[in-house]
Amino acid sequence: MNYMCISKKNKNMVNKSLFILLFLTVIGGIAFAGSAPSGLRCELLTNPAAAVTGNLASTTPGIKDATPEFGWIVNSDVSNDVQAAYQIMLATTQALLDANNPDMWDSTKTASDNSVNVSYAGSALSTNQSCFWKVRTWNKLDEPSAWSAVQEIKTSSAFSEYSESSMARYKQIVTEVKPVSVTKIADRHYLADFGKATFGFLRWTVPNNSLTMDTAEQRVQLYLSEKLLNGLVDRNPGGTIRSYTTTITIDGSPEYDVHVGSRDKIPSEFGRIGTYRYVEFINTPYPILKENLTQFFLHNPFDDNAASFVCDNEVLNDVWELCKYSMKETSWCGIFVDGDRERKPYEADAYINQLGYYYVDTDFSISRYSHEYLMTHPTWPTEWPQHSIMMAWADYMFTGNTESLALNYNSLKDNNLPVSSGSARSLHRCPD
């Protein structure tokens, strides 16, 4: 049997080492008792620095609420844990925040289990201002978490009370999409397939080695559509399937933007947009290559990784992908619309879209803005406006925020149902 002997000097060193190790363990446990809060939101947005307000055709950057609401996801490694307190810091620079020296707001340790819709209570915000905030929480054992990541917010050029035009939301963005294939049909005749239909416009970049070609005043015929017929773009698909035709006059430019469709209900800088998957080129003097075509897909900001579904049934997998993509693709207007048929929202359709959208993305703003828009632009079917009541309730259940309810409560309670003394299509209000 072997024994290890430790001298008195070495024993003291071991004891000191054990003490230091224990001290660091305790301090480490206090500093990082649970995972840092995540999923930060301001005004219900996960990216408030990109917030806009306004109407469908014109927007202003920044948030208009002088006392915005904050929220976060509480994380913990402790079983059955709850948030017991939080601390928010907000500063005009990230450097001040990193130094834990906020010049705008330090809530200090605030006993509360609330992690949504926490109203700002610091120094008055200024217009056209950028600020930075972070949060940490305490668990049921009174152990603090690490600080969250820092989030930036930006205020608008003016503050105002909550309304449809002042609610914070996102402006549409553009995603560049390349074709999945380009097929040469015949001489000077090509067909491009982008894989999926999108709302947007097309950019055609001329190959560099073709710019010196003598192409003056040549006209290229383009057909764009959602559907093929016998391997070519269907010129007359019928129904509400979209098909467009346009021409490009070749003038030596290095690129050409192709806009088809309408400008209705979108900011003017995007130009006309249409929905199409296929583009057919006829009489082109240049070869059509995949790398020279770009589809600019207009849509509401969308997190493709926020939700997923997979099973051993490929049909169900395809249904999931179709539904998920359809909600992204038809968000081009910034509200839930009927696609390109009328380019307008309907309450019942929007309600279904709202419920589905909550389960595929983390953005609440497009659902709320669709509801707010319909409250001031109701549609004509007798039973459709009643769905605004359900949209309002769903918005509250998913956000926990009452601003929209407070704004529209009287209209939802008293004025939502059409009243008539005799119309066969109208509902009759019962006596009180």
From the alpha-carbon coordinates, what is the Rg to the nearest angstrom?
29 Å
Tally of DSSP β-strands: 21
Mean pLDDT: 87
Helix-strand pattern:
HEEEEEHEEEEEEEEEEEEEEEEHHHHH
CATH topology of the largest domain: Immunoglobulin-like
Helix coverage percent of residues? 10-25%
Report low-confidence residues grouped into runs of 5 or more: 1-31, 418-428
Strand residue percentage: 25-35%
CATH superfamily of the largest domain: Immunoglobulins
Put simply, the count of helices is: 7
For the biggest sheet, the summary is:
8 strands, antiparallel
Structural class: alpha+beta
Highest-level CATH class of the largest domain: Mainly Beta
Task: Explain the overall architecture.
The protein has helices at 8-31, 94-98, 314-329, 347-357, 365-376, 387-399, 403-415, and strands at 38-42, 51-54, 59-61, 69-73, 85-91, 105-106, 110-111, 118-119, 130-138, 151-154, 169-170, 173-177, 181-186, 189-205, 219-225, 228-229, 232-233, 243-249, 255-258, 274-282, 293-299. By secondary structure, it is of the alpha+beta class. The chain has 3 domains: 31-170, Immunoglobulins (Immunoglobulin-like, Sandwich); 173-299, Galactose-binding domain-like (Jelly Rolls); 314-415. The strands form 5 sheets. Strands 12, 13, 14, 15, 18, 19, 20 and 21 form an 8-stranded antiparallel β-sheet that branches. Strands 5, 6, 7, 9 and 10 form a 5-stranded antiparallel β-sheet that branches. A hairpin with a 2-residue loop joins strand 13 and strand 14. The model is unreliable at 1-31 and 418-428 (pLDDT under 50).
